[in-house]
Amino acid sequence: MDYRTNRKRAAGLGSAKDGVEHYWQMKVTSYALVFLTPLFIFTFGRLLGAEHAQVVAAFGNPFNAVVAILMIGVSFYHLKLGLQVVIEDYVHGSARMPSLLANTFFCYALGAAGIFAVAKIAFGV
Amino acid sequence: MADVNRGNRPLSPHLGIYHYYITMIASITNRIAGVGLAVGALLAVWWLLAAATDAAYFATVDGLVTSIIGDIVMLGSLFALWWHFFGGLRHLYWDTNRGFNLDVANKLSLYSMIGAVVMTIISLLIIL
């Protein structure tokens, strides 16, 4: 049984050669998030609904600030990789590439905004 | 695509004819939780940006995030986060080439669901 399509036989290029890298980065970010997620939940969760001064003081603490920045950076990268796979699975045709671009822009923009916010608080508004 | 020669390949059976396994539910809900967490992440970043702006804007955004609708979204995000956390742990275990026995895979899926419920409750007890 020949599993190749006509197009595949014509192109003969094989895979895009970045599947393992994608998988590996997903796993590395997963391991990091095993530690970061609980740490972040318990600082962030307690600050929801708190006074502004209390929030500023909390992220003035280097440990909390670094955990928050790592959590934002790693989780948005993980989100970008994950949503990319979801888009590749469900979005077809001409909508696919704009969706992938939108995903990349959304995740990097939010990641940058979140890291900027924590850094600004940590360095003193 | 129907008229394109896709090669002499077998067709994957339709989703509807598979026997039910808990691993199916654990798999698709893990994906749904991951996608849904984008909403929680968006809210969290907005809240942090508000805190980095000034006390007045922070009060507005914090009020929205801790309103009844905000609480429902954040509670959902907390549950989704733990669900995805344990669903992911299951995958990390599978990556070590263990746990593929049908019975073990089913149990891992059930335990990851129980873990998510338990950790959501524990988190709420600690946070509130």
Automatic annotation (TrEMBL), chain A:
Q: Which GO terms describe its molecular function?
A: heme binding; metal ion binding
Listed InterPro entries: SQR/QFR_C/D, Succ_DH_anchor, SuccDH_FuR_B_TM-su
Which pathway features in its UniProt record? Answer: Carbohydrate metabolism; tricarboxylic acid cycle
Organism superkingdom: Bacteria
Q: How does it sit in the membrane?
A: Multi-pass membrane protein
Query: Which keywords accompany this UniProt record?
Result: Electron transport, Heme, Iron, Membrane, Metal-binding, Transmembrane, Transmembrane helix, Transport, Tricarboxylic acid cycle
Q: Where are the transmembrane segments?
A: 31-49, 55-79, 100-123
User: What is the first-listed, main subcellular location in coarse terms?
Assistant: membrane
Keyword Glycoprotein annotated: no
Q: Where is it located?
A: Membrane
Q: Name one GO biological process term.
A: tricarboxylic acid cycle
Return the Pfam families for the record: Sdh_cyt
Give a yes or no for keyword Chaperone in this entry.
no
**Annotated SUPFAM superfamilies:** Fumarate reductase respiratory complex transmembrane subunits (SSF81343)
Q: Name one GO cellular component term.
A: membrane
Cofactor(s) required for function per UniProt: heme
How does this chain assemble?
Part of an enzyme complex containing four subunits: a flavoprotein, an iron-sulfur protein, plus two membrane-anchoring proteins, SdhC and SdhD.
Question: What is this protein's function?
Answer: Membrane-anchoring subunit of succinate dehydrogenase (SDH).
Q: What is this protein called?
A: Succinate dehydrogenase hydrophobic membrane anchor subunit
TrEMBL record, chain B:
Q: What Gene Ontology terms describe where this protein resides (cellular component)?
A: membrane
Q: Where are the transmembrane segments?
A: 20-49, 61-85, 108-127
Q: Where does heme bind?
A: 84
**Under the GO molecular function aspect, what terms does this record hold?**
electron transfer activity; metal ion binding
| NCBIfam families in alphabetical order | succ_dehyd_cytB
User: Which family, according to UniProt?
Assistant: Belongs to the cytochrome b560 family.
How is this protein organized at the quaternary level? Answer: Part of an enzyme complex containing four subunits: a flavoprotein, an iron-sulfur protein, plus two membrane-anchoring proteins, SdhC and SdhD. The complex can form homotrimers.
Q: What is this protein called?
A: Succinate dehydrogenase cytochrome b556 subunit
